[in-house]
Amino acid sequence: MPKIFLIFFLGHFCTHDMKCLMNNNPIIAVIEDDPDTHEILSAFFRPKGYTLKAFDEANTLLKEIQKQGCTYDIILTDLNLPKMSGIEFTERAKELGVTAPIILITAQKSAEAAAKAIQAGAYDFVVKPLHFPQLLVSVERALYLRKIKSENELLKTVVASKEGINFDGIIAKSPGFLRAMDLAKRVANSMASIYISGETGTGKEIVARAIHNNSSRSSYPFIAINCSAIPENLLESELFGHAKGAFTGANEKKIGLFEEAAGGSLFLDEIGDLSLSLQAKLLRVLQERKIKRIGENQMRPIDVRIISATHKDLHKEVKEKKFRDDLFFRLNVIPISIPPLRERKEDILPLADFFLKKFSIMNGKNITSFSKDAMEHLLKKQWSGNVRELENMIERAVVLCSTQMIDIEDITFDNFDNTEASNVDAQKSTNIFSTLETANEPIKTLENFANQYILFALKKNNGAKDKTAKDLGIDRKTLYRRINDIEKSKPTTTLEQ
Asked: What SS3 state is found at 386?
């Protein structure tokens, strides 16, 4: 970006959009022994939404900070105070860990005084007589930069959590999940293969990354592959590599993921979807610790730790001869089970709050909290899609929300949201015909009955319209039209239990 444009952009942003990025009511601590200056500052800042608290001397504020921490967004202090100079106060405040910007006010115009103030840790240096528009710009810029710094720290946490940098970055309070994390910590440095089971969206890859990044292999690659996302004829080449000319289109040799992950960890997600032929080849690799590229005869030794995962019940798959028992025993040395989100109620609100902050930053919004109704809805929801569904819902809510608080209408965008109540309704309606046989009521019209069955199917599929249309054997346009018709006549077509 050209420097001239960058300067213009930052200047425009700081003076125009800065206020919307600051706290709603920033609190300013003012250290000034002149009561008239206190009154003038208060008269200027309070109408602009600021809250001011006056201190006659610096030591009073320092004692408060020592006792309860710094609760102020910014500190204005005179340079020449009777018992402690503004520079000395700044130095001591920084020693106490104060991160709030400190702006020094003085009658001195020397460059030396300004240099001492900045060296002590002050954000800015303002000369008397005060030019209030200039002081306001200094205050707003200080608050803006503080907010940006805070957001950068949050984004680092977001990235750390996404990449599984450590177990502390994983948000968890529920006993079941904490037990799984405790086991993962204990086995992180072992050489044993780890098998992670859990429903789709529970965070199996996040746990796998955390295991890798807390192991002695952390300085080597972590390679992840979804075995269900790649066709079988390509998956073997992805895993083991191929020689040039091994098959049509193999114009160059390819190094497989086992070799790419050398010294590190290979995460095989959805391993339950491997074909039996690939299962046999993977078993041989695990037994011999060697691979052979397609089209080659040379065996290549590998040094890689295998972490596998699936949403399927592999015990059941083994019994049904869909998964090799000998491979399962090789993979299932250390089993870690991730509980679904509906069994981790204690984790829902902390996760929701984390996603709220994350997507507020990413979308340039100043959304700070959830309403009571929204929180109750989040806690009641069954979360068939687990953490991934929660993350998607909060992202959508942040995008749609036009206030500073997520309310229930922001998270119930889909009228067929999968709440606990709708799940119970669907369960009660699983045998419609047997219910009608015993019910002492007149026969319904075919149209009315069809509408009821559409609602039942939507609830059964957690509001997934594409799947519902497919299950009902109709196209999506037809389903959407029927839903609109149902909504228009809702009082007479609600599914009766």
From this structure: helix
Q: Quick one: CA torsion of 433, 438, 439, 441, rounded to 10 degrees?
A: 90
Which helix H or strand E contains 39, and what residues bound it? helix 35-45
What is the C-alpha to C-alpha distance for residues 189 and 160, in angstroms, rounded to an integer? Answer: 20
Own/partner contacts of 172-177, CB < 8 Å, gap of 24 or more, are 172/344, 172/347, 173/346, 173/347, 173/350, 174/339, 174/343, 174/344, 174/345, 174/346, 174/347, 176/339, 176/343, 176/344, 177/338, 177/339, 177/344, 177/347
Alpha-carbon span 468 to 192, nearest angstrom: 43
User: Which whole-number Å values give the CA distances from 332 to 57, 196, 243, 439, 450, in the listed order?
Assistant: 66, 9, 32, 51, 47
Distance of CA 35 to the CA centre of its chain: 48
Distances (CA, A) of 433 to 161, 440, 441, 471, 473: 49, 13, 13, 19, 20
Average pLDDT of the residues in 64-74: 85
CA distances to 3, 131, 145 from 10, in Å: 11, 22, 12
CA-based nearest residue to 269, from 300, 239, 302: 239
Contact 200, 311 (CB under 8 A): yes
> Tens digit of pLDDT for each residue in 117-127?
788 888 888 88
pLDDT tens by residue, 424-437? 444 444 455 555 55
User: Quick check: bond before 129 cis, omega within 30?
Assistant: yes
Angle (CA) 27 29 34, round 5° = 135
In order of their start, the domains of the chain are 3-156 (3.40.50.2300), 167-339 (3.40.50.300), 342-411 (1.10.8.60), 420-493 (no CATH)
DSSP state of 418: -
* Cα 274–chain centre separation: 30
Write phi, then psi, for 196 (nearest 5 degrees). -105, 120
